[in-house]
Amino acid sequence: MRNQELYIGLVRLHVLHHAAQEPIFGLAIIQELGRHGYRLGPGTIYPLLHAMEKRGWLRARQLLVEGRRRRVYTATASGRRVLKIARQQVRQLYDEMFEDNAG
Ligand SMILES: [Zn+2]
Fold first, then answer.
1. Residue 67 is inside which H or E element, if any?
2. 94 backbone dihedrals φ, ψ, rounded to 5°
3. What is the pLDDT of residues 57-67, one digit of tens each?
4. Ligand 1 mean position, distance from CA 62 (Å)
5. What is the dihedral of CA 7, 12, 17, 23, to 10 degrees?
6. Per residue in 43-81, pLDDT tens?
7. CA distance 44 to 57
8. CA distance 12 to 10
9. How far is the CA of 90 from the centre of ligand 1 (A)?
10. How close is the Cα of 33 to the center of ligand 1, in Å?
């Protein structure tokens, strides 16, 4: 991903947002982010999910899907807490970035 340093926080927020709504897994989140124009491969997403798990924002569990093990992630209480704060930050930033175009 070009300019990854800039966008990686947005990607994490995106992941957290979806994990707060439903269980997510690597491949689906790669496709979902691709829909939003983020070109991310497993080599980026899996370590990112793992790092977010270690940070205490996501909880992982193994599911058996059609005979295959799949590692799914959901947001923890702590993840939901930071998401709530981040949502306000995003709104502030959004308002500031787009206020000139508001009218
Ligand atoms: Zn999305």
1. none
2. -60, -50
3. 999 999 988 89
4. 23
5. 140
6. 999 999 999 999 999 999 999 888 989 999 999 999 999
7. 17
8. 5
9. 15
10. 6
Identify each DSSP E strand in 10-67 by its residue range. 24-25, 58-65
Q: Please determine, for residue 38, whether its predicted confidence score (pLDDT) is greater than 70.
A: yes
pLDDT at 26 over 90: yes
Query: Of the candidates 55, 54, 59, which has an alpha carbon nearest to the alpha carbon of residue 72?
Result: 59
Q: What is the C-alpha separation between 96 and 91, in angstroms, rounded?
A: 8
Compute the distance from residue 23 Cα to the ligand 1 centre, in Å: 13
Distances (CA, A) of 69 to 25, 61, 62, 84: 11, 10, 6, 31
- 36 in Cβ contact with 45 (< 8 Å): no
C-alpha–C-alpha distance, residues 15 and 23, integer Å? 11
Domains of the chain as residue ranges with CATH: 4-101 (1.10.10.10)
